[in-house]
Amino acid sequence: MFTYPIIDRHELRLLQTTDAAELFPLVEDNRAYLKQWLPWLDLTTEINDSRVFIQSALQQLVDNQGFVAAIIADRAMVGIVRFNRIDWLNRIGYIGRSVC
Known about the structure:
Blueprint: E1 3-5, E2 10-14, H1 20-29, H2 31-34, H3 47-62, E3 67-73, E4 76-87, E5 92-99
Antiparallel strand pairs: 1-2, 2-3, 3-4, 4-5
Helix pairs in contact: 1-3
């Protein structure tokens, strides 16, 4: 599994479908703040919605079209970071982050 150390006790790691149970409450707790940038949050109403998101993110990775990683601090997920689109020809990735 992909992990990338950032600083002491912080890392990025590939999302897994089992992370849905940790991701959904994190989104739920920060819904009002995140909604400013993520209008689709109204469609995320249960843990399975987070699982579907993670599955689509993993498929995006397989298709070489983007990348989503969990931001881990002291062994707990505090957010995610996402390359929403990767332009391989121009070597550009469009990055976004959620929660934190």
